[in-house]
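Key result, reporting period 2: structure in, sequence out.
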């Protein structure tokens, strides 16, 4: 098993923990991942597992998280049953701690015709790195150099969860985002990433996942339209018959699924199509193939494929072949070995996700 390292927010190493029961980290391409450490209370260095400290495995500097939850439990087994469970978000969860607040005198944070990367980093800069209110700054967060990657769009935000806005940009652009620990600078560096196309015929060394190739030992496939729309009716400024209405998307007959988007917060009606497309991206249905990967096979994790890469996934018996992005990777370290579960395609929304998006106005409710 990899040694678990715990540091404080000044990047001082507090301890290395090797004798633990299990460590699991969930990496996600578009939004914050999570981690969980389970350890017996009587093991060495358990005292450093405190809220606010940063935890990561080995040299996985891009998979670190902040401890937010510490739980003690005791079973009738005595000392053997004294267990500590530590949980939290990966460093992407820092974005959950901020709401996008415009500067004084501005109605919204506006990015006019800028590359996606500039918008990602502009949001981080104004809300975490160099905010107008110094109380909102996280001093140990910094930005990687802006390489101006991605298409140029116009984007505005006002009083919305920063993490949700970054997720929205990820779904629109196909880019992922994360924070990586830099021990030289003693900073968590925010950057965006573009996955590699490893599908058959891409021109790159390809990666195919299939039980036929003995690199997957469990699979589940879901193709669902329960959370789907292909036409957005976007309503902008105005009242009654004078209200600006824009249709985005296409579909006919029973293949047409409509959704209404209240976008009266947009002063510029030219932005209505983008708002509608954002909503359709959220209602893209579910086309997901999940599976447990055989880690010792013809392809190696983080060498031949990684989170964000587009790969080919096949199950000949089901008649399923997908060229899909790896959107989630669950790494599990236990005494009996390493296990890896991958999700290809959309990540299944949880009930909590649905409630949160409704409260934040992402499910057709009125935006602030």
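The corresponding designed sequence is given below.
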């Amino acid at each position: 098993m990899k040694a678990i390292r715990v540091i404080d927010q000044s990047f001082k190493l507090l301890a290395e923990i090797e004798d633990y029961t299990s460590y699991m980290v969930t990496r996600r391409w578009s939004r914050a991942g999570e981690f969980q450490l389970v350890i017996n209370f009587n093991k060495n260095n358990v005292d450093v597992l405190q809220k606010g400290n940063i935890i990561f495995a080995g040299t996985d500097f891009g998979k670190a998280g902040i401890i937010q939850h510490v739980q003690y439990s005791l079973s009738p087994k005595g000392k053997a049953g004294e267990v500590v469970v530590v949980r939290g978000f990966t460093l992407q969860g820092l974005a959950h701690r901020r709401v996008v607040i415009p500067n004084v005198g501005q109605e919204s944070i506006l990015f006019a015709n800028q590359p996606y990367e500039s918008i990602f980093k502009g949001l981080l800069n104004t809300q975490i790195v160099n905010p107008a209110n110094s109380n909102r700054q996280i001093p140990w967060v910094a930005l990687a150099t802006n390489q101006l990657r991605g298409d140029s769009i116009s984007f505005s935000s006002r009083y919305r969860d920063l993490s949700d806005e970054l997720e929205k940009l990820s779904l629109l652009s196909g880019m992922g985002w994360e924070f990586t620990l830099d021990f030289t600078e003693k900073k968590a560096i925010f950057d965006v990433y573009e996955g590699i196309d490893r599908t058959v015929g891409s021109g790159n060394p390809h990666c195919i996942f299939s039980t036929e190739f003995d690199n997957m030992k469990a699979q589940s496939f879901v193709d669902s339209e329960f959370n789907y729309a292909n036409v957005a009716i976007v309503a902008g400024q105005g009242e009654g018959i004078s209200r600006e209405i824009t249709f985005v998307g296409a579909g006919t007959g029973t293949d047409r699924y409509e959704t209404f988007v209240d976008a009266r917060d947009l002063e510029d009606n030219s932005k209505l199509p983008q708002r509608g497309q954002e909503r359709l991206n959220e209602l893209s249905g579910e086309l997901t193939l999940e599976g447990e990967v055989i880690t010792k096979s013809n392809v190696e994790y983080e060498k031949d494929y990684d989170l964000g890469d587009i790969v080919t996934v096949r199950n000949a018996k089901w008649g399923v072949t997908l060229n899909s992005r790896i959107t989630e990777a669950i790494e599990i370290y236990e005494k009996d070995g390493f296990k890896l579960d991958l999700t290809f395609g959309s990540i299944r929304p949880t009930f909590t996700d649905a409630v949160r998006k409704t409260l934040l106005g992402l499910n057709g409710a009125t935006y602030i």
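The chain has four helices and 22 strands. The longest helix spans residues 116-129. This case is discussed further under Risks and Mitigation.
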